[in-house]
């Protein structure tokens, strides 16, 4: 049962975004799987699980490398750039960031 729950955790959590913690890149280890509790009316069970994960949560002032997804007049799609984050907005399941390349050592890379 524990192996199934760990597998379910990996598939359900990795690659998702939590507004509180950021993008969950990978689950590193499972610390604890609590006792299951049967949910009334459905027969499904719920388990409180503690785990460690590698996350990415961008913050204002951070310098990151990325690939252009939206095109404008200056930079083409799929161009690799180094940018400084100037602002972020967090939703329940997404994080939006705006960056600039108008400083030293920022801009197109490669």
UniProtKB/TrEMBL annotation:
Transcription recorded as keyword: yes
GO CC list: P-body; RNA polymerase II, core complex
CDD domains: RNAP_II_Rpb7_N
Cited Gene3D superfamilies: Nucleic acid-binding proteins, RNA polymerase Rpb7-like, N-terminal domain
Localization in the cell: Nucleus
Pfam families membership: SHS2_Rpb7-N
A single MF term (Gene Ontology): single-stranded DNA binding
A GO biological process held by the record: positive regulation of nuclear-transcribed mRNA poly(A) tail shortening
Domain of life: Eukaryota
Keyword terms, alphabetized: DNA-directed RNA polymerase, Transcription
Signal peptide: none
Ranges for domain RNA polymerase Rpb7-like N-terminal: 4-43
Family annotation (PANTHER family): DNA-DIRECTED RNA POLYMERASE II SUBUNIT RPB7, DNA-DIRECTED RNA POLYMERASE II, III
Protein name: RNA polymerase Rpb7-like N-terminal domain-containing protein
Organism from which the protein derives: Sanghuangporus baumii
Organism placement in taxonomy: Eukaryota, Fungi, Dikarya, Basidiomycota, Agaricomycotina
